[in-house]
Write a structure and sequence with these properties.
By secondary structure, this protein is an alpha+beta fold. 24% of the residues lie in helices and 30% in strands.
Length: 71
């Protein structure tokens, strides 16, 4: 499975919204392989949920996105 896009409004960051979304996905799909693309500044967030950065990157207009996966 791929998490296509996920963002929390800057005014709401730090309230646990993003964490709740990832936890719900992991709860509902505990054995599924999941990956996503994220900018550098969110890598640590996803690592907290067991995702690991791979060597795959994708250059966007503003950010370089890194592939994170839980497998």
């Amino acid at each position: 499975y791929r998490i296509q896009r996920m963002a929390v409004s800057p005014s709401c960051q730090g309230e646990g919204i993003g964490s709740a979304i990832i936890e719900k996905i992991q709860e509902d799909y505990p054995k599924e392989k999941i990956y996503l693309m994220c900018p550098e500044n969110t890598i640590e967030f996803y690592e907290n949920f067991g995702f690991r950065k791979t060597d795959v990157t994708q250059k966007g207009e503003v950010h370089t996105y890194h592939r994170m996966q839980n497998y």
